[in-house]
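[Discussion] Sanity-checking designs against the backbone

I'm trying to build intuition for which residues belong where. Below is a structure token string of 367 positions. I'd appreciate it if someone posts a full sequence so I can compare it with mine line by line.
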């Protein structure tokens, strides 16, 4: 048998980052570690099939030998009820078969949940039910800036235990630095009084969750026209430039660190934006700007990207980057950062202690 840890939590709470960090830590210690995402959510097509970007990331950066169909046997789109209605038992069987293959010859299996723990409750394939089927310990990752993180953690604890699942603990993730001491001194004790171990209070690391200009370039299939030496710049959101320069100035001044998305024919807007230090300028419609505009961008140190799509399509494609680590030349730094975070802020030794206790229990029962 394998010791399974089911990593779940609220949307964009760092579930994949936790899996990356724990995978690397346990692998360094000599354990045979596996990864599994029973229910994925497809945002792009790979070989004609919907694929989950988090699964693709784990497979590529961790060198997982299993095929994508085993690593994530069920991948659903936005209108997932149409896909799954009437065949819940079939999907459950597919998940359990893949779990058996992925867990073979592993010491520890890290299981990542879909967006939320309650996802597919309608089919009895939510985290609470699947964790019981896998005999997995549930580790919550909760993102938040205020006291509501305690309510979320405790609510999900009751949700899991009501269906017979087993809790491992909770990690309070992406906490603003000004809230760290309150989370440690006030919030954590309240959570623990409700019989839920707090296994970490992790500060917000913007360089982990924000994409770089290189990430944006890759996901858009963009051509780099200026600022090739600034591709590691972080992109803190986007501003669509469809207004007059006068109207845009107020927004541009408030949007330092964001990328401006506009047409290559909007020379007036691009020049004004360059004075406000955006992280990048994304020109849509394959409209090449004047050379002197690119010269100005080089002087200002602002990358300029050219994409073939219209503005709407470009914005939709950027959804692939929301809160995610993506495979790219710059992802190596982010993966190293996840391991550093696990070492400094997460009580991974407690997880190993639970593994050792489980292992002794298995030996004692003759299994």
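Best answer:
Here's mine. Compare freely.
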């Amino acid at each position: 048998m394998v010791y399974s840890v089911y990593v779940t939590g609220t949307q964009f709470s760092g579930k994949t980052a936790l899996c990356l960090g724990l995978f690397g830590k346990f692998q360094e210690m000599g354990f045979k570690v596996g990864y599994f995402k029973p229910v994925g959510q497809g945002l792009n097509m790979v070989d004609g099939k919907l694929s989950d970007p988090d699964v693709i990331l784990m497979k590529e950066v961790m060198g997982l030998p299993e095929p994508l169909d085993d690593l994530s046997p069920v991948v659903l789109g936005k209108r997932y009820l149409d896909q799954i209605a009437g065949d819940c038992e079939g999907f459950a069987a597919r998940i359990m078969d893949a779990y058996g293959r992925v867990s073979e010859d592993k010491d520890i299996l890290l299981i990542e949940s879909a967006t939320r723990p309650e996802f597919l409750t309608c089919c009895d394939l939510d985290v609470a039910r699947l964790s019981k089927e896998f005999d997995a310990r549930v580790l919550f990752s909760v993102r938040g800036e205020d006291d509501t993180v305690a309510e979320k953690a405790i609510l999900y604890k009751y949700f899991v235990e009501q269906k017979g699942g087993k809790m491992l603990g909770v990690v309070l993730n992406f906490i603003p630095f000004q809230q760290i001491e309150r989370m440690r001194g006030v919030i954590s004790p309240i959570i623990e009084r409700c019989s839920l171990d707090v296994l970490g209070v992790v500060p917000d690391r913007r360089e982990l969750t924000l994409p770089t200009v290189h990430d944006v370039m890759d996901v858009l299939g963009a051509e780099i026209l200026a600022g090739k030496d600034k591709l590691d710049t972080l992109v803190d959101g986007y501003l669509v430039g469809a207004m007059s320069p006068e109207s845009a100035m107020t927004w541009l001044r408030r949007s330092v660190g964001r990328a401006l998305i506009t047409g290559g024919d909007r020379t007036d807007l691009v020049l004004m934006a360059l004075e406000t230090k955006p992280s990048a300028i994304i020109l849509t419609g394959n409209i090449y700007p004047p050379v002197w505009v690119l010269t100005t961008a080089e002087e200002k140190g602002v990358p300029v990207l050219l994409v073939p799509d219209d503005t709407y399509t470009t914005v939709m494609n950027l959804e692939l980057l929301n809160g995610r680590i993506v495979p790219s030349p710059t992802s190596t730094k982010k993966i190293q950062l996840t391991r550093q975070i696990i070492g400094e802020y997460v009580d991974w030794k407690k997880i190993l202690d639970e593994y050792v206790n489980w292992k002794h229990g298995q030996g004692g029962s003759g299994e």
